[in-house]
Amino acid sequence: MSLDNKPVYSGGCQCGAVRFRIEGALGTASVCHCRMCQKASGNFYAALVSVRDARLAWTRGAPRRFRSSSHAWRGFCEACGTPLTFEAPEGLALAIGAFDDPSVVPPTIQWGIEAKLPYVDSVPALPGEETLSDQEAASYLADLVSYQHPDHDTEAWPPEGHRP
Amino acid sequence: MTNAYTGGCQCGAVRFRAGAFGRAAICHCRMCQKAFGSFFGPYVTALDFEWTRGAPKYFHSSNAGRRGFCADCGTQLTFEAGGGVELAIGALDDPGWAPPVIEVNPRDKVSFFAALCRLPPRPAAEQPQTDARLARVVSRQHPDRDTDAWPPEAGRS
């Protein structure tokens, strides 16, 4: 919350070159199954939240944009590729997974269900596997050094010597 | 390679082909979430793999691996570690080729994940208006098949 009691959200791309901050109430959060959202993000659907009347500021860097149709632009980080925005005349939406805490932005509606992949609804019923349950993967994780930006704002990024 | 699995980025600058697939999975880890700007990363292991147009740009997301994406449109394409290539399933020309069989790293799963598939669709009353609007949209996305040249000379600005 900000001093005047508005909700505040932050987020950014995986590498940290682009960061954003939002003040105010967000609009509708959704998942969109259309083929353009699938291919843009390399995923089964795009998870987007409308910024609507909230105030969005790019606090570090800015997205690069691809004009995906006559109607819209899609913003992404040109240094790591993270999808960040969907921008159309009716407004701008942000990729929910790019928020530092995506759990506070639960979608409430599904768009484009005519293009929904046939297996998507059964994914939550798939068996789960913790990486640490696998001996080989566990030792892999023990040596792992993440170069992902942390899930909070930073004064400077990356730290010196942090990345190859 | 005939009967290969093809795919690429949204704008078509980068295209790939795989002769066969290994296991398909979705990964809930926070690194996949942030890389995809989504709730999970969907990957299928690619075998007999080659880039057929252009090449991805890479971000080394950790000391163990790098993620390939299109520098022109941002589409996530690969996770590469230890000599192996994992393909982003949504970038396949038909993501139906690679139904996931397992969820990995469920510890980072967002709490509302299972409920997503039960969310309501767009109200039927709004559909005609939506269809009319979509009918006026001219897609600039690469088609879901290989092309000899892209973009087409006309119609691209």
What does this structure look like?
The complex is a heterodimer of chains A (164) and B (157). Chain A has helices at residues 35-41, 135-142; strands at 8-12, 19-23, 29-32, 46-50, 55-60, 64-67, 73-76, 83-88, 91-95, 109-111, 128-129. With 164 residues, chain A is mainly beta. Chain A has a 7-stranded mixed β-sheet. In chain A, a hairpin with a 2-residue loop joins strand 8 (83-88) and strand 9. The longest helix of chain A is centred in the last third of the chain and has 8 residues, at 135-142. Chain A is globular. The mean pLDDT of chain A is 91. By secondary structure, chain B is mainly β. Chain B has helices at 30-36, 127-135, and strands at 5-8, 15-27, 41-53, 57-59, 66-69, 76-81, 84-88, 102-104. In chain B, strands 1, 2, 3, 4, 5, 6, 7 and 8 form an 8-stranded mixed β-sheet that branches. The longest helix of chain B has 9 residues, at 127-135.
What is the average per-residue confidence, as pLDDT of chain B, rounded to a whole number?
A: 92
According to DSSP, the number of beta strands of chain B is 8
Task: Give average pLDDT of chain A, whole number.
Answer: 91
List the chains of the largest interface with their residue counts.
Answer: A-B, 72 and 70 residues
Q: How is the main sheet of chain B built?
A: 8 strands, mixed
Largest sheet of chain A: 7 strands, mixed
What is the H/E string of chain A?
EEEHEEEEEEEEH
Low-confidence stretches of chain A: none
Per DSSP, the total helix count of chain B is 2
By helix and strand content of chain A, what is the structural category?
mainly beta
User: Which assembly state applies to the chains in this document?
Assistant: heterodimer
Q: Tally of extended strands of chain A?
A: 11
**β-sheet strand percentage of chain B:** 25-35%
Gyration radius of chain A (Cα, Å) is: 17 Å
